[in-house]
Amino acid sequence: METRGILLLGLGPGDPDLLTRQAWKELESAEEIYLRTRHHPVVDHLPSRLVLHSMDYLYEESQTFEDVYRKIVDKILELGQRPQGVIYAVPGHPFIAESTGVEILRRAQQLSIPVKVIEGVSFIGPTFSALGEDPFPQITLVDALELAAGHVPCFPPDKPALIAQMYSREVASDVKLTLMAVYPDNHPVRLVHAAGTPQEFVEDLALHQIDQNARVGLLSTLYVPALEAGSSFEAFQEVIAHLRAPDGCPWDREQTHQSLRANLLEETYEALAAMDVDDDHAMREELGDLLLQIVLHSQIASEAGGFNMTDVLRGIHHKIVRRHPHVFGDMELQDVGGVLANWERMKAAERVEKGQGEASLLDGVALALPALTQAEQIQLRAARVGFDWPEIQGVIDKVQEEWQELLRASDAERSDELGDLLFAVVNLARWYKVDPESALREANRRFRERFRFIENAARERGVAVSDLSLEELERLWQSSKKR
Predict the structure, then answer these.
(1) How far is Cα 479 from Cα 449, in angstroms, rounded to an integer?
(2) In whole angstroms, what is the distance from residue 254 CA to residue 24 CA?
(3) Cα separation of 3 and 113, whole Å?
(4) Cα separations in angstroms, 275 against 279, 359, 436, 441, 448
(5) How many CB atoms lie within 10 A of CB 357?
(6) Cα–Cα distance for residue pair 80/115, rounded to 1 Å
(7) Per DSSP, which regions of 209-343 are E strands?
(8) Exposure string (b/e) for 430-457, b if CB count within 10 Å is 16 or more?
(9) What span, in angstroms and rounded, lies between the C-alpha atoms of 383 and 387?
(10) Strand order across the beta sheet in which 161-164 lies
(11) Which of 53, 113, 157, 211 could cysteine-pair with 227, CB 3.0–4.6 Å?
């Protein structure tokens, strides 16, 4: 006997009047249906002769939604192989915000089980009717549970978003925390309850209030209006691409990777300078200038057919995930030392995959780095594989040893010995957990300020700095230190 297979039926958003004629016809002639959940307003209005089976018990006995959905799919596929087949009814539309419908269809096709779909009105249309908004030209549809599990929103904030399936205040709380990583606490949002039913209700409130709302439940959806234009990475990419376009800026269109090298280095140092003084405003501005360089280089490469920004993002995304199996996988590492050792093992394996198996561990230290930073990176990499002093006293002794060798050095040896001393001092800074580059930059800043004090003092006396005696300079220097 030929099986009827699986009938996927959408119950609409909740108002019985929004059931399609095709759906009602099937329900009137059916003997039984299987419901994903009884917690839907239409269920109370189904034909009384229908035998209703609900999957709600799976929600109570399962640990995760994924487990619930897997069990539902398995059950419907099993029932669908009966001669009489099965009718599986879900809220809304079988394929909109309904993962079980999609998976049932996919696996049924693999098993050659016939599937018929009866459309249902999804929550989307009634929700936008309630909001009085048009989802075009661009809106992001987001699952609340997926968003709640993240740390930052997964969509551009300069476009509106509709966040569905806000099942509870607990989910709303997690969604709020994720959104507040980007949006202001008082960002205006709109909660839509029971869209497409007589109980439909829309509330305007601030983002930080959504989990305090007693109405949040199974039929709640959150609408998040866009932030101001230009607040997304995608919008910034468009600006840079426009600068390079035929109708863009003549200067930007002429730039190449080589012509911009100095800009990249300058912006990097300006960002470091802002960090040296811990100036949030300056850091924000300088990091923006640095990002401009990165996006501009990616745009230039894209136009030449080399790579694009997506390639850059994909590459670093996969690299970070791959190199953090203790975060994104099941590896257990106890401390920072274990993390760094594992990092070096993975990088060594990557070098072998790239045909660089004989390359030195230190080859990855860029020769273009400032000498102090380069020395620190060399020492860090060597230390990760165990080539390091067992305790700090050995490092201190080494600094003293190099100092004595410098004092005994001949003219021909002095440069080498001074380099060894500097290298040993960098190692000491590493043991003290001090960034040597930043420490020297800070010392340079202090010297500039103190020397400026001396210059101002000399100017007040009506003399040049060079006219002051060494004793006078020393007194002013000490005064500047006290300030």
Answers:
(1) 12
(2) 65
(3) 8
(4) 6, 34, 14, 11, 18
(5) 10
(6) 9
(7) 220-224
(8) bbeeeebbeeebeeeeeeeebeebbeeb
(9) 5
(10) 140-143, 161-164, 220-224, 188-193, 201-206
(11) 157
Q: What is the DSSP letter of 92?
A: B
Pair of tokens at residue 332? 């257990």
Contact 362, 370 (CB under 8 A): no
- Report residue 110: phi and psi, to 5°: -65, -35
Residue by residue, pLDDT tens for the chain (483 residues) are 456 899 999 999 989 999 999 999 999 999 999 999 998 899 999 999 999 999 999 988 888 888 999 999 999 999 999 999 999 999 999 999 898 999 999 999 999 999 999 999 999 999 999 999 999 988 999 999 999 999 999 999 999 999 998 989 999 999 999 999 999 999 999 999 999 988 999 999 999 999 999 999 888 999 999 999 999 999 999 999 999 999 999 999 999 999 999 899 899 989 988 988 889 999 999 999 999 999 999 999 999 999 999 999 999 999 899 888 888 888 887 778 777 777 777 777 777 777 665 567 787 787 777 888 888 888 888 887 788 889 999 989 999 998 999 999 898 998 998 988 999 999 999 999 988 888 888 888 888 889 999 899 888 888 888 888 888 888 888 988 887
Neighbours of 362 (CB within 10 A): 12
- Tokens 């929700």 correspond to 127
